[in-house]
Specification:
The chain has helices spanning 16-19, 28-39, 72-92, 133-140, 148-160, 195-209, 224-238, 255-258, 271-291, 296-306, 309-313, 368-380, 390-394, 397-400, 430-436, 456-465, 472-487, and strands at 4-13, 45-53, 58-67, 97-106, 109-118, 175-188, 213-215, 248-252, 264-270, 320-326, 332-337, 349-351, 354-356, 404-414, 420-428, 452-455. With 488 residues, it is of the alpha+beta class. Helix 5 packs across helix 10 (296-306).
């Protein structure tokens, strides 16, 4: 069990000029009575009032609560109580200036989650949720049943009967899926060791990429306060899951065009900001689900606002990733449960490899093919996560002699966390597979060990019977791969 500590620090008072004319004077007893009144229900809470400068009517208050819950309901109730108590406390504070700081400590790691200033009593400082209760539930009460299959069904049903004509929605899968009329193949022949052969191979990769991605003419302008909010979200998520703060990623700039086909227009943002937007959007929906106490009717009403097409088209940083159906020469696919340390959909079944479409030094344009090679190296052969370049990637033995084919089958827009995911099919040659399959060992992003493999028909049957246990992108990729193989 992980112990979580929430600190609320309030610095309250008036400006020196207003203190002379203010009718109500600040006093220590009043502060303690307010604090006691709104926080007395907490069994492990301490409130300390400390005067900083009585002549200016300022005081510093520390309120600390220790969370050590037994189930999700205790966590949810505590988050609601803390939020409610802070709102009531701030409302009753008659000072013109209040600085509120909320700090969170999980397992000894501490961040400043919120730091806000009120200079006018009529302005509200706190807007929910200031903590993601669902993330606390996941980590502090991992066995809690929060009925995700029902939530996925509610979200998928919202668009199942009224989705745009260019996409489709699979039952109980919260994603808008675009299936390409014709697969786009990429022949993965050995690049060889000469500059000429490598140059021709690189050109073939980028020609294939041009069908899928293009750089946007303009970068999206995002308000500084909004960017700061996304970064704060990432800080909070980083207390629970691993986040690659230094990496750059690509995000889709126009979701309305994403739903119509390819190529997808992209720009760059930091993984730090992208995760803060995408994963916080996911957590917000989970928090709503918890707050509605799993009532599908009330959740549907909230979804009319949260996942309306108008709202989706305004998505700020919808990061771009991929799910790859790897079909071995003996007609088996590779999958594995995602580890509990990843930011996106921990514990769900994912395909191998999968990952983000990221810039790579040595390639000036967005590239799905290089991202595929990097994830193949990183996830299946435990390659480095940082410092990779095109030349260092192509020097790997399992990349140097890679043979087989890679296909673009379609893409989907995931409604939970606003990811755009390319659905790809990788068919390694029998020679390459037999040479390197004994070297495959998954990295930390999956439950450690070798991939689970099984016949594609059984894997698809398992996915159809357990849709909520798969990432939406993985499920869509499996369906698209099945269609391609049957057509082929």
């Amino acid at each position: 069990m992980i112990k979580a500590i929430i600190y609320l620090q309030l610095r309250v008072g008036t400006t020196a000029g207003k203190a002379k004319t203010q009718k109500w004077r600040f006093n220590e007893d009043h502060i303690h009575s307010i604090t006691e009144r709104y926080f007395r229900d907490f069994t492990q809470i301490h409130a300390v009032g400390q005067w900083e400068n009585k002549s200016e009517n300022t005081a510093l208050i520390d309120i600390i609560t220790v969370i050590n819950p037994r189930n999700y309901q205790e966590i949810l109730d505590l988050c609601k109580q803390i939020h409610y108590a802070i709102k009531k406390l701030l409302k009753e504070m008659r000072q013109d200036e209040i600085l509120a700081t909320v700090r969170v400590s999980i397992g000894g790691h501490e961040i400043t989650w919120m730091r806000l200033v009120r200079r006018d009593r009529n302005n509200n400082l706190v807007d929910p949720p200031f903590l993601f209760a669902s993330l606390l539930v996941r980590k502090l009460a991992p066995k809690a049943n929060i009925y995700l299959p029902r939530l996925y069904k509610v979200i998928a049903d919202y668009y199942f009967k009224s989705h745009p004509s260019t996409v489709e929605v699979f039952k109980q899968v919260p994603a808008l899926c675009f299936h390409a009329k014709q697969a786009i193949p990429l022949d993965l022949t050995p690049p060889g060791y000469t500059k000429l052969s490598q140059g021709n191979w690189k050109k073939r990769l980028l020609d294939w990429d041009n069908h899928l991605l293009c750089l946007a003419d303009k970068y999206a302008k995002v308000d500084k306060n909004l960017r700061a909010k996304f970064e704060r979200n990432s800080d909070y998520i980083g207390l629970f899951q691993q986040i690659s703060f230094g990496n750059k990623v690509y995000y889709a700039t126009n979701i309305s065009k994403v739903l119509k086909g390819h190529p997808i227009s992209v720009s760059q943002c930091s993984y730090y900001q992208g995760t803060g937007y995408c994963e916080a959007t996911n957590l917000k929906l989970l928090d709503m689900w918890l707050g509605h106490e799993f009532d599908e009717g009330n959740m549907k009403k909230s979804l009319q606002k949260e996942i309306s097409l108008r709202r989706l088209f305004k998505s700020t940083y919808p990061m771009v990733g991929m799910e790859v159906v790897t079909i071995t020469p003996d007609n088996r696919i590779l999958r594995k449960r995602r580890s509990q340390d990843v930011g996106a959909l921990p514990g769900a079944y994912g395909l191998i490899p999968s990952g983000m479409v990221e810039p790579i030094p040595g390639c000036k344009v967005p590239s799905v093919s290089y991202s595929f090679l990097r994830e193949l190296d990183e996830e299946m052969f435990r390659g480095p996560e940082k410092g990779e370049t095109v030349d260092s990637l192509l020097s790997r033995p399992h990349i140097q002699d890679l043979t087989g084919k890679l296909y673009y089958l379609g893409h989907c827009f995931m409604l939970l966390n606003r990811f755009v995911v390319f659905c790809l099919l990788f068919e390694p040659s029998e020679w390459w597979w037999n040479k390197h399959k004994g070297e495959i060992y998954l990295n930390w992003e999956y439950a450690v060990g070798s991939p689970d493999s099984g016949p594609i028909n059984k894997a698809l049957k398992h996915a159809r019977n357990n849709r909520s246990k798969y990432t939406p992108g993985a499920y869509a990729a499996l369906e698209f791969a099945d269609r391609y193989k049957r057509k082929d």
